[in-house]
Design brief:
Length: about 425
């Protein structure tokens, strides 16, 4: 496979051109012929013009790449390697939503030929590739894995907004359905990943490794969220405690906060799903998810208590939320827990304005039913600084004071202004 791709006899097809797929497609297109496939025609048209719909990749990165973008499934039939990088979200019941993955596998099944390779990058539970995806390909194509085509799994490690660790500088896990598949998949990724590759023992091991990366972070953040509640009751600052504890060599620094996005807040549910299907009920993982999922309500209800304590009529109050994306300095609103804070406040009839320098108001309206205010307007009874965008870090104290009533509160979720000397003269609270 690798020799055919490197000689130009076969093209690489990347299916799903979002935050994961597009960077992979463009990087491979530096050296090989690539077809970028996505079912969203509007996104394809933007990429054909050198525009990243996710606003992560500069237009210059499209220049000189040997790539075509298409939404036509007929075009991908000439490819020899199919890399699947579609989303793996959860539904309203926190169950894995495999529709994009099965849809991509269906498209591969209609296009694949003998001797081809299929490599999955989408994060999922151990066993999903071989037990859920491959059978779809086999049924539609009439081909058999190991006999007619080979399969690999190389979990994505894209970190949106991280300019210091792009795709090529992050060690890549690779795996294959047999030894030959492993070696070819390894060579393929090693040709673009300067940080190198790690050959996992099996596809299931690679799937499991990816999913516990984020599960571990989720559980540790949930611990910090619980500790923040305890320390708030005691009357001490959580970050002061973390700074003190971090002086010990084997203390691992995690911080409390809202856990959203397409990874940390989602992946543990895939592992829970797999475990429960086998009759296991992981208590630690489930407890971590419960704690983190309830943090938006905790923050919103604390805000309501602040308003009530001042004797204010809640429905007449105004709260400004600064930040709507799931993390700082990105446009990504997937699984943003700010949405849950907004919804909880609105359920109490509070008037909420949301601002964000990165998020799209149209996307927020489409996905969550509310848009952005063009800018803060008037004075607010409370300000929730929810996302630590760079634009917010250097705001002077007077900015917050000018946008607040005399008895307003400031909830500084990321503790940007926890040092008294830089703190606005408002009723201050952080996790």
């Amino acid at each position: 496979m690798f020799d055919q791709v490197s000689s130009g006899q076969k093209s690489i097809c990347v299916i799903g051109l979002g935050y994961v797929g597009l960077p992979i497609a463009l990087e491979f297109a530096r050296k090989f012929r690539v077809v970028g496939f996505d079912i969203n025609q509007e996104r394809i048209e933007l990429m054909q013009k050198g525009i990243d719909p996710s606003k992560e990749i500069d237009a210059s990165e499209f220049e000189g790449r040997n790539i075509i973008f298409t939404a036509n499934p007929e075009v991908i039939k000439e490819c020899g390697v199919y890399i699947v990088a579609v989303p793996t979200p959860i539904n309203e019941s926190n169950e894995p939503e495999l529709k994009p993955l099965i849809g991509a596998s269906t498209a591969v099944g209609k296009a694949i030929s003998k001797g081809d390779y299929v490599i999955y990058e989408s994060t999922t539970y151990p066993g999903c590739t071989e037990e859920d995806c491959v059978p779809v390909i086999e049924q539609i194509s009439g081909l058999k894995m190991g006999v007619d085509f080979k399969v690999g799994y190389s979990p994505e490690r894209i970190n949106p907004g991280d300019k210091e660790r792009p795709l090529t500088k992050i060690l890549k896990i690779v795996s294959g359905s047999d030894e030959e598949a492993l070696q070819n998949v390894s060579k393929l990724y090693a040709s673009i990943i300067t940080a190198g590759v790690y050959e996992a023992a099996s596809i299931k091991v690679a799937e499991a490794a990816k999913i516990i990366e984020n599960t571990q972070r989720d559980v540790n953040i949930s611990l910090m969220n619980e500790l923040s509640m305890i320390f708030n009751k005691i009357g001490i600052n959580t970050y002061d405690v973390i700074d003190a504890a971090a002086t010990k060599w084997n203390f691992h620094r995690y911080q409390p906060g809202l856990v959203g996005g397409h990874c940390i807040g989602v992946d543990p549910y895939y592992l829970l799903h797999k475990a429960e299907a086998m009759g296991l009920h992981p208590r630690v993982i489930a407890a971590g998810r419960f704690t983190n999922d309830n943090m938006p309500a905790h923050i919103a209800q604390k805000a309501i208590k602040k308003l009530n304590a001042r004797g204010k009529v809640v429905k007449d109050c105004r709260i400004l939320i600064m930040g709507a994306t799931f993390k700082e300095n990105v446009a990504d609103i997937r699984n943003s827990k700010i949405v849950d804070v907004v919804n909880e406040l609105v359920s109490y009839s509070v008037n909420v304005d949301v601002v964000d320098p990165y998020a799209s108001s149209e996307e927020l309206k489409h996905e969550y039913g509310f848009g952005l205010a063009s800018e803060p307007c008037g004075q607010y009874d409370g300000i929730i600084l929810a996302v630590s965008h760079d634009q917010y870090k250097n705001l002077p104290a007077a900015w917050f004071e000018n946008h607040a009533t005399s008895d307003a509160f400031l909830f500084d979720i990321k503790a940007l202004f926890r040092k008294p000397e830089s703190r606005p003269a408002l009723d201050y609270w952080s996790l």
